[in-house]
Amino acid sequence: MTGGWKAKRFWSAVSVGEVDGGYGVMLDARRVMTPGKIPLTLPSRAMAGAIAAEWDAQSGEIAPLSMPVTRAANSAIERVTPQRAEVAAMLAAYGETDLICHRAATPTALVERQAAAWDPLLVWADATLQAPLIATVGVLPVDQPPMSLARLAAHVGALDAFQLTGLHDLVTISGSLIIALATTAGQLSPDQAWDVSRIDEDWQIAKWGADDEAAAMAAYKCADFLRAAQFWVMSRAN
After folding, report:
1. Which of 1, 29, 149, 195 has the most CB atoms around it within 10 Å of its CB?
2. Which of 197, 172, 65 minimizes the C-alpha distance to 121?
């Protein structure tokens, strides 16, 4: 026999129900499990509904890449939960070299564009998170206030595994813990957050023109960023 076995749709109906600890998704009478055979227990009905819709949309062979909410929930349970403290610390460390703290020296128009988009976020971080950060010119690290970094770490460390899973892509794709936290707090819409994270790239595109490969990669990252923002919203228990 050659070729790998691929799972196919075996169920007729998909449903959502309350289970111990949250919500579950049922394929007929069978509970959806993670790849590691852990029950898929979800924090909100909205997330369970989104996952149910992904499973209900499957026809013939199951296509995991067409199920981003399911994959993110699996990751929250199997990968983030066992190392929640380590994931939180990794994300909090982005505050040490946050994108919005590293500014261009020239040209003036780019400097002004960065300041207009990023200075209000530094003000917000100071006022709302009690975490003032220092802006600098260039990419070399600057020593950020230890108390600010501690407060950011405490904020991130208080999140559960599902929230951290959503935050992870918001931080790593944007390169900014502050942009990510502003998004989760509703200070920025996901589209606004994506735009302010792309000021440098958009400036280069405006100056030199778009590259097809880079544009395709940016579109892919944007879709992942917006999905992560949606996952964050769904991670809030209801």
Report:
1. 149
2. 197
Cβ of 51: how many Cβ atoms within 10 Å?
Answer: 27
Is 166 within 8 Å of 232 (Cβ atoms)? yes
3-state secondary structure string, 94-156? Answer: HHHHCHHHEECCCCHHHHHHHHHHHHHHHHHHHHHHCCCCCCEECCCCCCCCHHHHHHHHHHH
Rg value, the chain, Cα:
20
Given a contact cutoff of 8 angstroms between Cβ atoms, the answer to whether 46 and 230 are in contact is no
The burial class, CB within 10 Å (0-12 / 13-18 / 19+), for 5 is exposed
- Strand, coil or helix: 33: strand
Q: For residues 94 and 6, give the distance between their C-alpha atoms in angstroms, rounded to a whole number.
A: 39
- Regarding pTM above 0.85, the answer is yes
